[in-house]
Design goal:
Number of strands: 16
CATH class of the largest domain: Alpha Beta
CATH superfamily of the largest domain: Bira Bifunctional Protein, Domain 2
CATH architecture of the largest domain: 2-Layer Sandwich
Low-confidence stretches: none
Strand content: 15-25%
Mean pLDDT: 92
Structural class: alpha+beta
Bound molecules: adenosine-5'-triphosphate, magnesium ion
Distance between the termini: 48 Å
Number of helices: 15
């Protein structure tokens, strides 16, 4: 017997939920277009190397979350766990270097083998934006402003807090790393096993730990602020000044390190109290090292991604389906006419529901079920004189309308 349930951590998008996703993506894209961010879609799978080399051998994604498989040709492929690596790969392989800055907006499914829970799926969806080829702090400010305006368009901005940090430049990170190793080595006995492991491989990542024992040690750890080079500090100041100019409020969070290895300078997250432990809805930062790590020429970039499922949960209300006009045929000629009229009205831009089998009672019941705004009753007698009855289903008012005038008459229900 075939297994007929969906794979754990995946789900079907149907009805209201599917509509909510589409509406959300549309609203976000509309804002992105105003910022000059064009559409981009990279493949859902890439050579495993694309993620392995960029996300880093020690990241959670690479060590435990990737869906990796060998294809029939013997290549190791991975279902994309995030969108930035694919965009960076496309910049290199597609020769987009000459067209920088690249400003793109994407949406689509991502795959991570995580423990499924509320707001945490194995196939989930993201919207995201990338600005590749801009090294200036103005780029960071623009990409954050884009995130703010999208959250605002979705009506959730007031439920989120923007948390901001800097991961500095190379020299700052090296100095900070040493300070962290000193500190955490002194407290190694209090750390979780995972974090003791991170101590040798990637001490910065310990700051990201959600383990309660680690959190206690982290509370007194050195902060990045004290190890920033002059350049890195100036960069961060410029980003903050830019945000102040736009009156974008933020909270400094010195413990904010992104889960991925390729970030530098600005790191940010929009978090909410509304979703329990899965509180980050939109997250991003600057990734100046990414494209070089991948084997391309040094190319700066900054971007973010947001979880569609989490955003939809914060939005809450279902997106209403458009209210159709229902055509109800009565009698043989009437039923035939519904098919013709339905097509005509749809081509004129109306949303039309058609009853596949005729009859007034059945027709009105179905009109009610699809939340129709009006019913067009098409009976043989009226048809004989080229007319139909239009009934407004909210007010109950009826009108006798010539078929020739029907499109105009229904314009109010468009
Ligand atoms: P978390 O700390 O919650 O695991 P993350 O740092 O792994 O998040 P990112 O890689 O920054 O997440 O991805 C950006 C956004 O995508 C997250 O803020 C979240 O909204 C969403 N997201 C990430 N992983 C999942 C998942 N497994 N299921 C649903 N949404 C997710
Ligand atoms: Mg994660």
């Amino acid at each position: 017997m075939a297994k007929l349930q969906p794979v754990r951590g995946t789900h079907d998008l149907i009805g209201d939920e599917a509509r909510a996703h589409l509406a959300l993506i549309d609203a976000a894209r509309t804002v992105a277009v105003r910022y000059g961010y064009g559409p981009m879609a990279t493949p859902i799978f890439e050579f495993t190397d694309v993620f392995q080399r960029t996300l880093g051998d020690t990241s959670d994604i690479v060590t435990k979350e990737m869906y990796t498989f060998e294809d029939k040709g013997g290549d190791s492929l991975t279902l994309r766990p995030e969108g930035t690596a694919g965009v960076a790969r496309a910049v290199i392989s597609g020769g987009l270097r000459n067209e920088l800055p690249l400003k793109c907006f994407y949406n689509g499914p991502m795959f991570r083998h995580e423990r499924p829970q509320k707001g945490r799926l194995r196939q989930f969806h993201q919207i995201g934006a990338e600005l590749v080829g801009v090294a200036e702090p103005t780029g960071d400010v623009e990409i954050i402003a884009l995130g703010v305006d999208i959250l605002d368009a979705l009506g959730v901005l007031s439920e989120t807090t923007l948390e901001l940090n800097t991961l500095g430049d190379g020299p700052s990170r090296a100095a900070y790393r040493d300070a962290l190793v000193d500190y955490f080595t002194g407290h190694a006995y209090s750390l979780s096993d995972d974090s003791r492991e991170r101590l040798t491989r990637n001490p910065l990542r310990i700051l990201d730990s959600k383990d309660a024992r680690d959190r206690a040690v982290i509370a007194d750890a050195p902060v990045f602020e004290d190890y920033l080079s002059e350049d890195a500090r100036a960069f961060f100041d410029a980003v903050r000044t830019g945000l102040d100019t736009l009156e974008i409020a933020y909270t400094l969070n010195p413990r904010l390190v992104r889960g991925l290895d390729y970030y530098s300078h600005t790191a940010f997250e929009f978090t909410t109290e509304a979703l329990g432990a899965q509180g980050t809805v939109l997250a991003g930062g600057r990734y100046d090292g990414l494209i070089e790590t991948m084997g391309g020429p040094a190319t700066p970039g900054v971007g973010w991604a947001a979880g569609v499922e989490r955003l939809a949960m914060v939005i809450g209300d279902p997106t209403p389906a458009p209210r159709p006009v229902a055509l109800v045929g009565m009698g043989e000629a009437g039923e035939r006419e519904t098919v013709r009229l339905a097509r005509e009205l749809r081509r004129a831009g109306l949303t039309v529901e058609l009853l596949y089998k005729g009859g007034l009672t059945r027709g009105l019941r179905r009109a009610d079920r699809v939340n129709a705004a009006a019913a067009v009753l098409i009976g043989d007698d009226e048809l004989g004189r080229g007319a139909v009855t239009v009934r407004d289903l909210d007010s109950g008012e009826q009108a006798d309308v010539a078929i020739a005038d029907l499109t105009d008459h229904l314009a109010a229900y468009r």
